[in-house]
Structure formats: C-alpha cells, structure tokens
Amino acid sequence: MEESIVHGDPAGEIVAVANRVDVDMVALPTHGYGMFRRFALGSVTTKVLHDTETPVLTGTHVPELTPLDSEPYKGIACAIDLDPHSEETLWWTSKFSEAYADDLVVIHAAPAGALSAVYREWVPPDTRTQVIDQARVEIDRLLKKVDCQAQVVIDAAGPLDLIPSATEQNYADILVIGRSQHAGLLPGLRAHAGAIIRESPCPVISI
C-alpha cells in the first residue's frame, strides 16, 4: 500500500492523486452527524463526486466497514436512468457482481416527473404502463448487450422514492449508480447522487 501526504484543497488533491496513481476506486467517508446526517454529505465527498470520473465508494449509514472476505456482498443493486452512461454503468456493475455477489437487481425510476408535468397529480394507467413497458424493453436490450442477467425493478416514481426502498427490499449490500453529465429521461442520476447516497440503506458506488 502506498501512502501519500499532500497539502492543499482536500477534494482537489484527492482527485489529483487518484488521477496520478490511476486508482480503480476512491473510498471516502461522509461526515454527516446528528440531526444533519440525512441532509448533507461532507463537502469534500460532494466535490470529489462532482470532479472525478473514478468510481467512488461512500455511504452515510456506514460508520465502520467490516473486513472484506472472498464474497463480501450477497446482493448488488444498480440504478440506471437510461442516459448514454447507463450501458457503461450496467457493464461495470455486471462485472463487479460476477466477482463479488450472486444476485443483481437493476432499478429504474421511470420518468414520473415528466408525466406529472403533463397530467398534474393523476397519471392515466395506460400511460403509466406504456412508460414502464418502454423502459423495460430498453433495459432488456442493455442487459443483452452487456451479457448480463438480473432482476429488474421499474416503477413510475421519482428516483428518491424508488431507489433506496427498492435497494432495501431486495436486500442489496451495495448500490451502484451512474453519475454522468448527460441528460436522459430524467435529469440524470448525477443530479440526484448526493440525495441517493444520503437515503441509501447501504454503501454506494458512484461511477
């Protein structure tokens, strides 16, 4: 293990070291304590998530990480929003799952926001079904393209309403999310990354 002590802006130096050493992942704690724990990530973590393209492992609900064994995870959840980065996110998660877990569930929050903007509080059942069906077809296409098998959970809901609860209900030990700058059917999980990490019942890898 290589140790490095640097001076300067913590987030900037972490990103710089990660790029220089060409690491596979950055692991960061999030110092959210007391009544503010659910409302804010640490400023360093937030900036690193924004500035680096390297996968970042963090989690507000994990004060201590237990030592890893050969099979540290029983289940992995992967949240995608069907933007151009989703294929890369799904491919990365499938390889991670092959190495470290038996079960993989893919979670997608269909664009309920776009529907509610048109229909206000009520969304016609046929429209809701159509949106979910279209998303399922696209996810099935991506799964075949990356040669991956997974359970799929789709609902016409906001990312914060669906992703943490579906992760917990499927007993996932880790959640993987994409955080590209592209905009897909949703504003992009990058826009929701901090909130998803705060609400996740398990550690999160952002890629």
Summarize the entry for a quick read:
The chain is α/β, with parallel strands linked by helices and 207 residues long.
Describe what you observe in this structure.
- The chain has a 7-stranded mixed β-sheet with strand order 1-2-7-6-3-4-5, with helices on both faces.
- The model is unreliable at 33-39 and 182-187 (pLDDT under 50).
- It is of the alpha/beta class.
- The chain folds into 2 domains: 1-58, HUPs (Rossmann fold, 3-Layer(aba) Sandwich), CATH 3.40.50; 64-206, HUPs (Rossmann fold, 3-Layer(aba) Sandwich).
- The chain has helices at residues 10-21, 43-51, 86-100, 112-119, 125-145, 159-169, 189-199, and strands at residues 26-27, 56-58, 75-79, 103-111, 151-157, 174-177, 204-206.
- Helix 3 (86-100) links the parallel strand 3 (75-79) and strand 4.
Topology, element by element:
Elements: H1 10-21, E1 26-27, H2 43-51, E2 56-58, E3 75-79, H3 86-100, E4 103-111, H4 112-119, H5 125-145, E5 151-157, H6 159-169, E6 174-177, H7 189-199, E7 204-206
Parallel strand pairs: 1-2, 3-4, 3-6, 4-5, 6-7
Antiparallel strand pairs: 2-7
Given as residue ranges, the uncertain stretches (5+ residues, pLDDT < 50) are 33-39, 182-187
User: Helix segment count?
Assistant: 7
Write down the overall mean pLDDT.
Answer: 80
CATH architectural type of the largest domain: 3-Layer(aba) Sandwich
Cα-atom radius of gyration: 17 Å
Strand order of the largest sheet: 1-2-7-6-3-4-5
The CATH superfamily of the largest domain is HUPs
Shape: globular
Estimate the strand proportion.
15-25%
- CATH overall fold name of the largest domain: Rossmann fold
Domain unit count: 2
